[in-house]
């Protein structure tokens, strides 16, 4: 709330958020948050949950809950009702804001059930009517300033198991913003295009960061490459964030065109998943006047912890030094407020530059806490990300994938990302996923799923030989299947669990 109060006082008449033709100025956002906070202060409500796409109700809910001193929990609206029921059960007693159809269905379900699990179930449209009603009462301007208060509960994507609620306290999100954004740094014509779902940490961080900088946010609730390009042109978007799968689709939509023809777009950030080298290099060709930034972070770290900035992108594609060129597939260097340590998987000792291990991070923005499990930070404040990677001699961080995904074949640990990188260098391979499947002889066998580029072919033997020629033979996939597409979640993370399950079921 401190961030919003500063924004409303400094540039209150600027438009803060826009969805279609609807807009909210920073002052209107402040006032609406106060009205919502007053209604939440009923003595019973302990959580505010939302199941819906991005709308103007989203920033109002985030700040209104914070003003009222209760956690805000945006949930994945693409989950099934039974999956959502399990998440909602962790948010009692609370208020739920959702789409009209789900509000009616859940409202009836709750009224017919024993007990009072939710104080109220309503729609985003009803919320907007409430906060804009004539004579609506705002809460007293004072709010709690305890940095330990829980601001947001974000359920992890569950790519390898059931989602868990990551606890992001006020101190985590505010320290991230203060460490990465300059107050009032946005010009009046700066416009950011937000197409990241509300339940993703990048969505929460974008709201807080944009408010503090004073940048208008245009919401794009449903992404398609065509709608993204059209919105970027008509709204004269200057800044945008995409996940790798989104950027790949944007590039496909621009096939045959010499450039993206978006003269207003000055900065394009990406993150949330692995970016294929061919995709980012093609994007830099199509957006020649745009600054690219790769942002790496986790839900548990309150968003970004390392950046590969515009200069590093240009240096990587222009340099003749292979070590510098290779940095295009790195996630850059840690933020000044973040410490990174690479640890041995087995005994936890710190590894020198160039050696891969577990990535540990430390900093004020790092939460590393889950509801029901407590903090997973060690006694010195370090958080084990479960990601594998290494730092080069200049401190650039390279990811090797989730350590949970490591394939153990005959006692040898193998990174699926390393094998995928080699497969993706083949001229006909558009996408690749490598996983381990149970094997009686080796413990796990290396299996690969390949998506070919349109109108191309490749044989299993050809691709196996391609890997064998570039890596040790022990890293060659014993089994290769060809699929039309790979399973990703909405934020661009490969769902290896689904690939592994499909391969197991297929024998």
What is this structure, in a nutshell?
With 507 residues, the protein is of the alpha/beta class. It is built from 16 helices and 26 strands.
Q: So what's the overall shape?
A: globular
CATH topology of one domain, what is it called?
Answer: Rossmann fold
Report the average pLDDT across residues.
91
Structural category is alpha/beta
Count of strand segments: 26
Main beta sheet: 9 strands, mixed
| Low-confidence runs of at least 5 consecutive residues | none
End-to-end C-alpha gap: 54 Å
Number of helices: 16
Strand order of the largest sheet: 2-1-10-9-11-12-13-14-15
CATH classification class of one domain: Alpha Beta
Q: Architecture of one domain, according to CATH?
A: 3-Layer(aba) Sandwich
Question: Can you give the helix content as a percent range?
Answer: 25-40%
The fraction of residues assigned to DSSP E strands is 25-35%
Radius of gyration: 23 Å
């Amino acid at each position: 709330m401190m961030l919003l109060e500063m924004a409303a006082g400094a540039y209150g008449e600027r438009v803060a958020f826009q969805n279609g033709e609807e807009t909210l100025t920073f002052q209107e956002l402040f006032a609406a948050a106060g009205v919502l906070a007053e209604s939440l202060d009923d003595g019973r409500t302990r959580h505010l949950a939302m199941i819906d796409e991005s709308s103007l109700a989203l920033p109002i809910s985030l700040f209104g809950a914070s003003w009222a001193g209760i956690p805000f929990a945006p949930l994945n609206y693409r989950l099934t009702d039974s999956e959502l029921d399990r998440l909602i059960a962790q948010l009692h007693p609370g208020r739920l804001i959702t789409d009209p159809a789900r509000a009616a269905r859940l409202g009836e379900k709750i009224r017919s059930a024993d007990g009072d699990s939710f104080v109220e179930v309503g729609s985003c449209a009803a919320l907007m009517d409430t906060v804009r009603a004539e004579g609506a009462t705002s809460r007293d301007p004072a709010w709690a300033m305890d940095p330990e208060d829980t601001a947001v509960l974000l359920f992890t994507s569950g790519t390898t198991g059931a989602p868990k609620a990551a606890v992001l306290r006020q101190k985590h999100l505010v320290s991230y913003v203060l460490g990465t954004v300059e107050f009032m740094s946005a010009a009046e014509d700066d416009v950011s295009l937000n197409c990241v779902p509300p339940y993703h940490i990048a969505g929460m961080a974008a709201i807080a960061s944009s408010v503090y900088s004073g940048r208008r946010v245009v919401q794009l609730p449903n992404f398609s490459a065509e709608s993204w390009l059209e919105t970027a042109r008509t709204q004269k978007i200057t800044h945008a964030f995409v996940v790798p799968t989104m950027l790949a689709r944007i590039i496909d939509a621009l096939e045959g065109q010499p450039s993206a023809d978006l003269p207003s777009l000055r900065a394009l950030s990406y993150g949330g998943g692995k970016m294929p080298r061919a995709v980012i290099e093609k994007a830099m060709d199509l957006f020649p006047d745009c600054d690219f930034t790769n942002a790496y972070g986790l839900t548990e770290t309150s968003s970004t912890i390392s950046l590969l900035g515009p200069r590093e992108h240009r240096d990587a594609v222009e340099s003749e030094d292979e070590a510098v060129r290779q940095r295009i597939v790195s996630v850059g260097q840690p933020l000044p407020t973040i410490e990174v340590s690479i640890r041995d998987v087995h005994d936890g000792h710190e590894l020198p530059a160039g050696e891969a291990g577990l990535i540990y991070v430390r900093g004020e923005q790092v939460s590393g806490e889950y509801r029901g499990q407590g903090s997973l930070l060690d006694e010195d404040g370090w958080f084990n990300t479960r990601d594998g990677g290494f730092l080069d001699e200049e401190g650039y961080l390279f990811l090797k994938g989730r350590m949970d995904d490591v394939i153990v074949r005959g006692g040898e640990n193998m990174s699926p990302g390393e094998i995928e990188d080699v497969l993706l260098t083949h001229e006909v391979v558009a996408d690749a996923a490598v996983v381990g499947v149970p094997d009686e002889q080796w413990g796990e066998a290396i299996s690969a799923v390949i998506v070919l580029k349109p109108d191309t072919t490749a044989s299993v033997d050809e691709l196996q030989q391609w890997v064998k020629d570039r890596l040790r033979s022990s890293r060659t996939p014993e089994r290769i299947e060809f699929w039309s597409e790979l399973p990703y979640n909405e934020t661009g993370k490969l769902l290896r669990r689904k690939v592994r399950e499909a391969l197991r079921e297929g024998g």
